[in-house]
Model the fold of this input.
Amino acid sequence: MRITSALEAVSTVRTGDTIVIGGSGGGHAVPEALLEALEARFLADAEPRRLTTIHPVGLGDKSTKGAHRLRHPGLLQRVVCGTVVDAPGIAEAASRGEIELFCLPQGSLSQLMRDSAARRPGLFTRVGVGTYVDPRIGGGSQGAPAADPPSEAATIDGVDVIRYKPVVAQIAFLRGTTADALGNISMEGEAYFGEMLSMAQAVHNAGGTVIVQVARTAEAHTLPPKTVKIPHFLVDLVVVAPDQPITYATAVSRAYAGDERLHLDHLDPLPTGPRAVIARRAARELTPGAVCNLGSGISTGVALAAAESGMIDTVVLTNEQGLVGGLPMSGLDAGAAVNYDAMLDQPYQFDFYDGGGLDIAFLSFAEVSARGDVNISRFGGRIVGVGGFVNISESASTMVFSGTLTAGGLETAWDADTGRLSIVHEGRARRFVNEVEQICFSGPLAAQRGQRVRFITERAVFDVTPAGLMLVEIAPGIDVDRDIRPQLGFDPLLSPHVVPMDRALFDSSF
Done:
């Protein structure tokens, strides 16, 4: 192990290399100093070129940092990741056909790092079959055509599966908190473990170079052995970045690192309006003892709704990044949590998810079809990707999808005197359409699996049935023919027992 500067470390990257990058979303254990140095080297020298980057989680602050730094023409040939919502420059380059982009399930990519470390013949999984990531449909391609895609269709014992090809990478960009003089890496100050160990093992076993960014160094043999995440013999270069923040939005948080617990009675309240109604209605799907996943977007409000109702102490909230218990964060800090009970390596969290361990999961939607298909990956000319959506939505016993009925300028009003909801201004875009642009969740396959699937909006609740989407609840004051049917791209089934949504949801949300 050798300590060096970020610029010297990235000088080991050669044209055509494959780089695996650790970290999650909004700066959680993201080796930002290495990404910044790689961008600076390319802008100065026009080298290296035609790189392939692989990172299971999207990386960036939705503006200038993370994977967005690598957007410059010629630097990248291929990106394989869960999502590009955090890195707009990568999405734009893919839209222009300048790079190959594969947005694949976060969990499958995370598990693939472990299988690649062991030199197994790839990852074989049923997750994603029947969705846009299935090679039979498109293989998750969102950019320029590729001659050698990262996955292929396979059949095992008569069952359709996806084989993700093993990753052979020349470089790893990783991050920890402390490096001792031998090169042992601990992660005590991080909000996320990810698959740092698997990535280091995979690159080391392939004869590549493992580069780790840390905040500080320590003398040899001073790190508690159980805190060491990456042992020294896997580490080639260490770069010290003493000012690395715990996330892009939060410089320091002992709570995110698990070193202190916070009093949850001082949480910010839910915002008023439709999002609060949806979050509170979704939280009513929780049952005591349930093990849950909370996705990003509007679903993050479920945690606050559960906290205000007292349900948060009766359930186990988890996120795909590996955190168990406590309260998941939202916004740019989504992926972190406070007061959690455990932080698992990300592949093991997805092992639990894929195996059916989730009792219920809460995810958002961009488009919903008459069959109950869901799209979040590509819509309205925008590339987003799926993150952990596919793994989570296919494995949970109960799926609750949340979102407003229409998008873009929706305004609603609640009359507490009459107990009636009214639509002041309808959103510009339909979300419930006859067919979705890309299938990220299949309603018919969910019905075959026996999943319970529910869609919650500010004015109506729908269930997936074998015959299609069925309206089961309606907000007080809302008329089906006036306020719902005209905003759908199809005619929904009507339950013979449509019930009103509880007015208490609206009284407390407006």
